[in-house]
Specification:
Layout: H1 2-28, E1 34-39, E2 50-54, H2 68-77, E3 82-85, H3 99-107, E4 114-117, H4 132-138, E5 142-143, E6 147-152, E7 158-163, E8 185-189, H5 196-199, E9 206-209, H6 223-231, E10 242-247, E11 250-254, E12 272-277
Parallel strand pairs: 1-12, 2-3, 3-4, 4-5, 7-8, 8-9, 9-11
Antiparallel strand pairs: 2-12, 6-7, 10-11
Length: 278
Amino acid sequence: MKIKKIVFSLIILIICTVIGVFYYAFKVEPYRLVVNEHQVNNTNSKENLKIVQLSDLHIKKDFNADRLDKVIQKTNEQNPDFIIFSGDLYDNYSQYNENEAVISKLKSLKAKYGKIAIWGNRDYGGGAVKEYANIMAESDFSLLRNENQVFTLDNGKKILFTGLDDALLGNPQFPSPNQMAETSYDILLTHEPDEVSQYQNKGYELILSGHSHGGQINVPLIPQIQKKATALMSHANNYTGGLYQLGANEKLYVNTGIGTTHLSARFGVAPEIAVLTF
């Protein structure tokens, strides 16, 4: 009789645990938001530059424009010099869109020098390709598609951003590297992280990407689940999230994103705002 009670209790415990995990994965973690801070390089300089990177909002019915309020608040609290959006604004534009509300929210993001965006694969599909450029322009973002943009800082130094087109649905091509000769720091923006193998050793100190979502599901002690999940994203198998040292003077940061796709769940990969200081 005692054994039956123990077995029954264990079954109830397992069922409750499974229900709890599913509830957390679908109803709690996707709406959390963590700020991950990274010092990109070691320097004794008092003149730090701060970039806030946002990626993969995937706005949809269960993560609409109102959900951006927390993103905007936490981003503006960082007092960034630059804000970078690494692509994938909507999850599926044909199924859900609310342009006016999104523009109003994104426009309230504040950066000292500028706000820059690039194209993601979701910014092409579902009719988004016809609207994305206008949305970002009205939100005061410079949308780069195989283009360079140079900013002059208060100290007179110049920083270069190169934004490439999406690798899956676009046509990424490098613009002229001539401007690198006059800049102190060069940053490459590309949506899919695994494309970095083609972009190394081109003179960029930092590469920023997104797309991976970190797989969205990362169960401790079972890395195979995250590996299979990131495989669904395509072009995100080798670099799934965080800061990578590619070479002596070259780093890659893969932002695991804010929204969800395929499955409206996250477990072990909370939505992130990345703060990169160098």
